[in-house]
Design goal:
The protein is mainly beta. It has 5 helices and 61 strands. The strands form 14 sheets. An 8-stranded antiparallel barrel has the order 46-47-48-50-51-52-53-54. It has a 6-stranded mixed beta sheet with strand order 1-27-28-29-30-34.
Length: 854
């Protein structure tokens, strides 16, 4: 919801602003009056604000964007909030929660920006941010509307750099301003960059992998960075390496520099490190139970002495440690935390600080920084049932003059006034001081498709095509143990459903999650109980061979109960001579295991598929039938319409089973493109119930199974960090959204004036490739531009309907003549297993133009 700022509150905020502005003292040329000019507030990345938590009588609001937000907002002195979204837009939002303007880029925006000092020549406070379109943008912040060309001061394209493990040059590092006005930003190509205010490179430092952190700066201009090459770097003001310190995991956490010369930074090896900023020597490290994405915040006294370091871990804890590395307190939220904590001051008349942090359960927490007790928390979970389970607050908060701003996976920027929950009665508020989890328990809780752990069970009816996921939580004396289920003799032996149903079961690599995948449809309108029981270990290191060095364990036993939905109507997918049913499949979210969204959360959210119906059988005596679908990459054009995107690296079939309106769509060996290359997904399933409008009902599931040795570059690392189970597989689950393809769209229609002229097949042998070739013909004066259309040849078993397992995107070559698409060539690698009878389909965009049996 959105609420306008009431006049009295505006006056109070205005009166308090000058004093606060004087207290900022950033020491670098950011906007002087900005309460939060960049991701971690200041050049040392303390994430500490001098603003007191005064409540002004206003209410929370949410601003809607088109896709997920995973970057930190920054706030201008006039209250404007700036943030980028996976929908490719950069937004300026007024303090009342309404849009001031937006700026279109060519790809997702996954990093925070910065607002600079007033430029008298340009007469604006310039803002700088990066995009995955490979440009760093420098824009006018003026509130008035203007063209994109007028708003753009300059944009800087990242030069191509060859980096092992990465194939893109996205500006995913957060932009900031250092001493002298130099702009700094990291890039996925593995470089840390210093950019002059005029948009030219000052220097580039090449690390061994992506640089996503925001640098911390010393008084002498030394900058400190982390990299996915597992190292922490110190660079002098000219970009030369002073030292590097290796860790045992990716370093995505941004460093915080204390005044005594200690650098605090976390790693995916689950540790917070304290390093000597002069030498890089490790002073101490503090271990957690899972990888750390979050960046540390520093509490300092009036003399500048560090009193506490705050950070969070994907183990679900917020931690406070002292400068000697000893635990002060920890607070357990129950779901992974990637958000970085920030510090604000208590209200007038109260001493101390408040620690604000978002969590994977959609909740913004305000904790007493001294005790770790909850002051209040606010649940941002959307009331929209399609977004309710996409509520991760993986972005970090920003503190304004009157409240907290945070971006959400559901695509909203949320604003919560300071201490709102202490002044208003709201069901979203929680003032209980402790954790919501019992201090002593051994439980297997159900997990929703969106990754939320449910202590109250599955209260909503579930799809008869869905998954059952259990998560082991072990706590003793308020301390959460790293419990790992043991699959002896097998994962299936841990599962006991009633009524019985056939299923496949697998553990996550860390043993915390048990995935139960029905191999068919459950009975509609039926109450089920799934007993999960067996043994578990605690402690140790989790490798493909199991938990090594486990220090404890015990037995678990719990029952997950749910009721399936009633059987819906017929499957609303049709195949016609001139038009086929098609739908958009988008906004993938894969929250389990926690490592996956930590490295590709916005990437999944950016996937945009168009799915067309190629063939469909009638349902048999069991009520089940099959449907063959084709998936192609899509995007929104400038008019906001979904169209085929020939540049998108997606082209694969799905074979579906359906009963009524329920469907399980499966793909085998589907290559999904990541920033480091293609990952062959052994099994990719989309499960759910389709409505007549081709929207999946809430609660739909995505399931993926990857054979770890097949992952390029990072396969061995996945084993080392415990993501692969004993079978060598990474099991993952999540959810997605669908919507009917627009009626005016042409991708699912027979193209006007285009027909299939010929289709040939040459079978492969064990030694030589085979091929399939399709030739298209066009009527007089008909154009079929290759810049906006694609063609494919899909091979299937003519008897079973199963697709032949190929990399259709990689092995297909478009035949183009004078800019027109005139055919397609499919390479069939030597040794490919081919059915006795092959049915080949020629598909234009997602329409089956013709077929032939061989």
């Amino acid at each position: 919801m959105r609420r306008r700022w009431v006049p009295a509150a505006a006056v109070l905020a205005a009166l308090s602003l000058p004093a606060a502005a004087d207290a900022y003292r950033y020491g670098v040329p950011v906007q002087r009056s900005s309460p939060w000019p960049e991701m971690r507030h200041d050049r040392r990345n303390t994430a500490a604000s001098p603003i007191q938590a005064a409540y002004h009588g206003d209410r929370p609001w949410g601003f809607t964007t088109g896709k997920g937000i995973f970057s930190t907002p920054f706030v201008a002195g006039d209250g404007t909030i700036y943030v980028g979204s996976a929908d490719t837009y950069f937004y300026a939002i007024g303090r009342d929660g309404h849009a001031r303007w937006r700026f279109k880029t060519g790809n997702i925006i996954d990093s925070a920006g910065v607002i600079g000092a007033f430029d008298p020549k340009l007469r604006t406070n310039p803002i700088t941010f990066g995009s995955a379109d490979e440009y760093l943008y420098h824009l006018r912040s003026d509130r008035r509307h203007m063209s994109q060309r007028r708003r753009t001061i300059w944009r800087l394209k990242a030069p191509k750099v060859s980096t092992q493990g990465q194939i893109v040059d996205w500006w995913e590092g957060n932009a900031e301003i250092g001493l002298g006005g130099t702009i700094y930003a990291g890039n996925t190509d593995g470089t840390a960059n210093a950019i002059n205010p005029n948009g030219t490179f000052r220097w580039r430092f090449k690390a061994g992998n992506s640089v996503w952190t925001v640098a911390a700066f010393g008084d002498d201009g030394t900058s400190y960075w982390g990299s996915l090459d597992l190292k922490v770097y110190a660079l002098d003001r000219n970009g030369h390496e002073l030292w590097s310190q290796p860790t045992a995991g990716f370093v995505i956490s941004s460093p915080a520099l204390s005044r005594d010369g200690t650098l605090y930074i976390a790693s995916f090896d689950s540790r917070l490190y304290a390093l000597d900023a002069q030498t890089g020597t490790v002073k101490w490290f503090f271990p957690t139970f899972d990888h750390v994405y979050s960046s540390p915040a520093l509490a300092e006294d009036a003399a500048g002495n560090t009193k506490a370091i705050y950070f969070a871990s994907t183990d679900g804890n917020v931690y406070a440690v002292n400068p000697a590395g000893k635990l002060i307190w920890k607070f357990y939220v129950g779901d992974p935390i990637r958000s970085s904590p920030v510090l604000g001051r208590m209200p007038a008349g109260h001493s101390g600080r408040i620690l604000y942090v978002g969590a994977g359960n959609g909740t913004l927490y305000a904790l007493d920084a001294q005790t770790g007790r909850r002051r209040w928390s606010y649940d941002t979970t959307s009331r929209d049932p399609r977004l309710r389970d996409r509520n991760d607050l993986n972005a970090s908060p920003a503190l304004g003059t009157r409240g907290v701003y945070v971006g959400s996976e559901d695509g909203h920027v949320y604003y919560v006034p300071y201490d709102y929950c202490l002044h208003r009665v709201d069901r979203r508020c929680n003032r209980h001081p402790g954790s919501d989890y019992s201090p002593n328990l051994t439980r297997v809780f159900p997990v929703t498709a969106g990754g939320n752990t449910s202590q109250t069970g599955l209260t909503d009816a579930v799809d008869a095509s869905g998954l059952v996921i259990g998560r082991l939580v072990v706590r003793r004396g308020g301390d959460t143990k790293y419990g790992s289920m043991v699959d002896v003799p097998s994962a299936a032996s841990l599962v006991h459903p009633n009524p019985p149903f056939p299923f496949a079961a697998a553990l996550s690599g860390d043993g915390q999650y048990l995935f139960v995948r029905p191999t068919g449809f459950l009975r509609p309108s039926t109450s089920y109980s799934v007993r999960m029981s067996g043994g578990y270990t605690t402690g140790g290191v989790h490798l493909i061979t199991g938990a090594v060095g486990a220090t404890g364990g015990g037995a678990f036993g719990d029952t997950i109960r749910f009721r399936t939905r009633p059987l819906g109507g017929s499957l609303p997918l049709r195949v016609g001579a001139r038009r086929v049913s098609a739908f958009n499949l988008r906004r993938l979210a894969i929250p389990e295991p926690a490592f996956v969204p930590s490295v590709n959360q916005i990437g999944f959210d950016s996937y945009d598929f168009l799915v067309g119906t190629v063939a469909k059988t009638r349902s048999g005596p069991s009520g089940e039938g099959s449907v063959l679908l084709w998936v192609a990459g899509a995007h929104r054009n400038r008019k906001g319409r979904h169209v085929i995107d020939p540049a998108r690296s997606f082209a694969f079939p799905l074979l579906g089973r359906y009963r009524g309106s329920e469907v399980i769509m499966s793909g085998q060996n589907v290559p999904l493109t990541f920033s480091f290359g293609d990952v062959p997904v052994q099994l990719l399933q989309f499960r759910g119930q389709l409505t007549p409008s081709l929207r999946m009902l809430p609660g739909n599931f995505l399931f993926a199974e990857v054979f770890c040795p097949n992952v390029p570059t990072y396969g061995p690392l996945l084993v080392l960090v415990g993501l692969c189970n004993k079978q060598g597989k990474l099991e993952a689950s999540g959810t997605y959204l669908t919507s009917g393809y627009e009626r005016r769209g042409t991708a699912n229609r027979r193209p006007r004036g285009v027909r299939l002229a010929s289709l040939t097949l040459q079978r492969p042998t064990d030694q030589s490739d085979g091929s399939a070739d399709a030739r298209l013909s066009r009527g007089r004066g008909i154009r079929y531009p290759a810049s906006s259309h694609v063609a494919a040849i899909l091979l299937t078993d003519a008897d079973s309907g199963s697709p032949v397992s190929l990399d259709y995107r990689r092995d297909t070559t478009m035949v183009v003549r004078r800019g027109n698409l005139v055919g397609a060539h499919l390479r069939i690698p030597a040794g490919t297993s081919m059915p006795a009878r092959v049915r080949a389909y020629v598909i234009t965009d997602v329409f089956p133009l013709g077929r032939r049996d061989f």
